[in-house]
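help with these tokens:
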Amino acid sequence: MKELIVAGGWLMLPILICSILALAIIIERAWTLRPSKIAPKHTLALVWKWIKNKQLDSKRLKELKGSSPLGQILAAGLSNSKHGREIMKESIEEAASGVIHDLERFLNSLGTIAVITPLLGLLGTVIGMIKVFAEIQISGTGNADALAGGISEALITTAAGLTIAIPAMIMHRFYVRRVDELVIAMEQEATKLVEVLHGEREVDYSEVGK
């Protein structure tokens, strides 16, 4: 590996840095974007239970807000439910915008890495071929070692750039899709909350449990 990095020339350094950053983002997002952490399945059921047992107070709202991003959104709506449907919806949307921003953190960086690493590899290819043609101009085609070195540098940087870009692009698209799914799930839960509290839907307490 060390020999390949050295043979690839100085452009292997930014490509290597991009690979480290991409791996760190992929691991961090895999841990952060777990559905069980972002939108636990029984969060809304717990709210119904509190409402049913008349236990919904400021302490419960604080607990709900700190439990998960979905809990944060629901707590914002519950805190403003007495001000009417529109105010409640606005508070939910405001809280949701902050949550979505956190969910999308580092995804732009991962997408940028997926785009620039092939360009860095292409730049390495161009530089390597320039060296080859410069050597041909100076020494002709007789110096096979010099020509092979330039061609090798060109191929190594291209391969390295693509090796980083392909998984980075795959994971970027995967996480964008994951965020979309989480946002939709949270929107559905928030909509249920608004409709129930304003008499537009009945709670199915059979799902809540005792």
